[in-house]
Amino acid sequence: MNTVPEILADAFDRVRDEVRDVLDGADDQILRWRVDREANTVAWLVWHLSRVQDDHLAKAFDRGQVWHEEGWAERFALPFDVDETGYGQSPHEVGRVTASAELLTGYYSAVAARTAELIGGISDEDLGRIVDERWDPPVTLAVRLVSVIADDLQHVGQAAYVKGLAQRA
Known about the structure:
Elements: H1 4-23, H2 28-32, H3 42-60, H4 66-69, H5 72-76, H6 91-94, H7 101-119, E1 130-132, E2 139-140, H8 141-168
Antiparallel strand pairs: 1-2
Helix pairs in contact: 1-7, 1-8, 3-7, 3-8
């Protein structure tokens, strides 16, 4: 493993594997369990990391989101704006994400497949391309990809921890 696409694929594959592990055997009670009234649920954490990965990579590669193109927004039927990713949501909104493990697994798998497609042809030169000028300095593709990987791994780790607490409760 020594090419940019191989390294990125390995990182995103690790996220995919952890998401599958967290959702494996998680029933609705585990998916909705909260440490306290304001804490994130496993369902929300996995939905959110999936939405962020889908949204950010779609924008970085000037593509549509799997969420819209493959009908996931309709399948989830969440009571939010259709473009919501979960960033900054209130505890009440977090509790409204009540998806099944099967639905969450399906959506993340679709996002992972799109991600593999998008990163498969990245070159070293592509990494310096500016993908978001709203920041100072502007965000490059490399920074955006590392940011998504870091965010995903943090949230899937949180989901695994919450699942473990739920199983012990």
